[in-house]
Write a structure and sequence with these properties.
Layout lengths: L1 H4 L5 E4 L12 E4 L5 H10 L12 H10 L6 H8 L1 H10 L7 E4 L2 H11 L3 E5 L9 E4 L5 H7 L8 E5 L3 E11 L5 E3 L3 E6 L2 E7 L5 H17 L4 E10 L4 E7 L9 H4 L4 H9 L13 E7 H5 L7 H5 L4 E5 L10 E8 L3 H16 L2
Parallel strand pairs: 1-2
Antiparallel strand pairs: 3-6, 4-5, 4-6, 7-8, 7-9, 7-11, 9-10, 10-13, 11-12, 13-15, 14-15
The chain binds adenosine monophosphate.
């Protein structure tokens, strides 16, 4: 939609016939992500290509990148697709991450849990998102079953990670252009519920020192991985004020959706500008902004008919619905953004708006 606003035409590739992207692009290719013929067709029809989630097929992205520029590059995607490579790359860049071990057998899992100490979070190295492919182990005796539950016994490596008793979660979306210029969007304070992003609050309610550190880390990663495009960096702020990186996403990020109304230039427009070699836009915050996600739960509680008029009847609310074909509990269906004079005021309205939509 951002590219279109600036006059560009777009093509999408997705296995879904009526997926959200297809509803706004000029041409849609229905194909599996690992269909290399379809990937070549996408390259043929495009001047420049990006991906908007990281579980696309890395080989297809490599095939495309031999034909047309792909931003971020396939090497960035490879790092972000695998938590083991991601954590090792971060550590090599000297960036703090929670204590972790990569384990390949039940015995190693038990040993890692003993070394790190409960509680720990066990995570698959690949295909995880929104808290999927994770389990929190609070009792060391459950280490073996958690390892097995994540597919460890079928040969998939598993990350055992210390549970961070964080004060706050924050994220930074960093944009980096072809010539290496970087612009970071304002730090977002994020609240997750059940491993899924629930609320983003901007400006984040933490010290300037923490914000500066979060921005410094995001820029270091963008530079270290040679990202062209966007990279979102999710971080934990510990009670001692230390900033540790949890996860990277080489694309527009849910915690950056607030930028559509909140910032002078949205994360989407910034990516489009970078892809076509235009100057980046100003990333300044226009006003305090809060985003709340709309999961399928809102539809479940209202028999498929949320009350959008209640949302839009509230001051400074903006409704975004993605056009997904069906709802289910935990599925991200849209979000509400609220701007305000103060971040507290915007937060009160955002929570009330979602509650009003959810009332049967
Ligand atoms: P992830 O899929 O790794 O982004 O995890 C989703 C959410 O689970 C995070 O945003 C945190 O709220 C929580 N989480 C993940 N890893 C940890 C950890 N090591 N310690 C505490 N909470 C975590």
């Amino acid at each position: 939609m951002s590219a279109r606003t600036m006059g560009y035409r777009s093509v999408s590739l997705d296995p879904g016939v009526d997926c959200p992207g297809s509803q706004v692009t000029d041409h849609h290719i229905v194909a599996a992500y690992d269909d290399l013929g379809a990937a070549r067709e996408l390259a043929d029809r495009s001047d420049v290509v990006t991906y908007e989630f990281e579980n696309v097929d890395a080989t297809a992205i490599e095939v495309i990148s031999e034909l047309k520029p792909v931003y971020p590059s396939p090497s960035v995607l490879r790092v972000c697709q695998d938590r083991e490579i991601e954590k090792i790359s971060l550590r090599e860049m000297g960036i703090g991450v929670p204590e972790f071990r990569v384990v390949k057998s039940e015995g190693e899992a038990v040993e890692a849990v003993r070394e790190i100490g409960v509680p720990v979070v066990m995570k698959t190295t690949r295909w995880g998102y929104d808290g999927k492919g994770q389990s929190v182990v609070r009792d060391a005796g459950d280490a073996g079953s958690a390892f097995e539950g994540l597919g460890g016994s079928e040969g998939a490596p598993v990350i055992v990670e210390g549970f961070v008793d964080f004060e706050m979660e924050v994220s930074v979306v960093c944009a980096r252009s072809l010539d290496g210029e970087m612009r970071t969007f304002p730090v977002s304070e994020n609240v997750h519920v059940g491993g899924i992003l629930d609320t983003s609050i901007v400006p984040a309610r933490c010290s300037d020192a923490v914000k500066d550190e979060a921005v410094r880390i995001a820029m270091r990663i963008a530079e270290g991985l040679d990202v062209i495009g966007l990279i979102a960096v999710e971080m934990f702020v510990t009670r001692a004020g230390e900033v540790l990186v949890n996860e990277l996403a080489p694309r527009p990020h849910n915690s950056g959706h607030y930028t559509i109304e909140g910032c002078e230039t949205s994360q989407f427009e910034q990516l489009a500008r970078i892809m076509v070699g235009m100057p980046m836009g100003d990333v300044g915050l226009r006003s305090p902004t809060v985003m709340v996600n709309l999961l399928g739960d809102v539809w479940e509680s209202t028999d498929g008919a949320p009350d959008w008029s209640a949302v839009l009847g509230m001051p400074r609310t903006h409704l975004h619905l993605y056009g997904k074909s069906g709802y289910r509990i935990g599925r991200k269906m849209g979000h509400i953004t609220v701007t305000g004079e103060t971040v507290e005021g915007a937060l009160v309205v955002a929570i009330a708006a979602r509650e009003a939509a959810s009332r049967a």
